[in-house]
Structure formats: structure tokens, C-alpha cells
Amino acid sequence: LTLILSLHGPPAGRAAAHYAVRDRSGPLEWSACENHKLTRIASDRTVIVSQASEAFSREFLEADPLIWGAALADLTVRTWNLNPADIIERFTHRWRYARIASPATLPPLPPGTFFAGDATSASRVESAWLSGRETAARVAASLTKAPAADPAPAIP
């Protein structure tokens, strides 16, 4: 489950100095201040994206977003030391199929064919990025190999 908070003013509290907070032991697993991505957020606003832990998400997946959104908003405000009165808007989203149950096993691919993605790993954005880098290295390596020479035609 994901929450996006839009708040009045520039980043305050922990958001002024930190891009992200990660806590794999609690209900708020990951949260980031989007203002640290230059030119993405207007200077008079703060935007925080928060993602709930898998346990919290499973517990509240079918619940009304007003309920779990309020809980995540409270956790986000406390985690970042923000003023709840500064909240302008709150958006919620269910990423129902965001994670795979188990990694996929790829079939053998034809020579010169490559696969990149998070389906074979932890199904996280970092996994997709790492897979892309690894695949790009394999593609580059395949391009530097000299192609097999065609046999010279026989001269009659």
C-alpha cells in the first residue's frame, strides 16, 4: 500500500536533510521526500511517498483506503517529524500485484536475445535496475565478440 502526502511549505523536519527512511521492521517500510529529486516539486510544497510493509499491506489490502491511508499518514508524519496541519492532499494506491510470489525461471533464450526485469528476483525497483545493468553488460560483451567468419566461397 502506498501513500503520497502533499504538504505546505519546503521540506521540514527530517525531510529537510534526508531523502529516504527505511525500516523493514515496522509497518512503514520505506518513505522518501521527493523534493530531493531536483526540479520535481515546487519550492512551496513538500511531497512524501510512503510504502507500507508487506504485513501491513496484507492486513489492510481490502480495507477502505481512508482507514489505512490515515494510519500511513500518521506514521509518515511521526517518522519525518512533520506537522500534520501542513497536509494539503493525501493520495493512496494499492499495488496489488507489486511483488511476485516466487521468482520466475527463464527458459533458455536464443543467442543474441536478452531479458531484463525484476521477475527473476526480489521484484523491487532496485532489482529491475540491477537486472538492467547486468543485462546491458551482457549485451555489450556480446557486441564486442567477433562474429563467426563465413567460410570463404570456393573458387572454381
Layout of helices and strands:
Elements: E1 2-8, E2 20-22, E3 28-33, E4 45-52, H1 54-60, H2 65-80, E5 87-93, H3 125-144
Antiparallel strand pairs: 1-4, 1-5, 2-3, 3-4
Account of the 3D structure:
There is one protein chain. The chain has 156 residues and is α+β, with helices and mostly antiparallel strands. The chain contains three helices and five strands. It has helices at 54-60, 65-80, 125-144, and strands at residues 2-8, 20-22, 28-33, 45-52, 87-93. Strands 2-3-4-1-5 form a five-stranded antiparallel sheet. Strand 2 (20-22) and strand 3 (28-33) form a beta hairpin. The protein is globular, with a radius of gyration of 23 Å. The termini are far apart. The model has no long low-confidence stretch (mean pLDDT 87).
Name its key features:
single chain; 156 residues; five-stranded antiparallel sheet; 3 helices
Q: What would you say about this model in short?
A:
The protein is an alpha+beta fold. It is built from three helices and five strands.
Strand proportion? 15-25%
Spatial sequence of strands, sheet with the most strands: 2-3-4-1-5
Please give the count of helices.
3
Radius of gyration: 23 Å
Main sheet attributes: strand count, strand direction, barrel closure: 5 strands, antiparallel
Segments where pLDDT lies below 50 for 5+ residues?
none
Distance between the termini: 73 Å
**Oligomeric status:** single chain
Number of strands: 5
Structure class: alpha+beta
Helicity level: 25-40%
Order of helical and strand elements: EEEEHHEH
Shape: globular
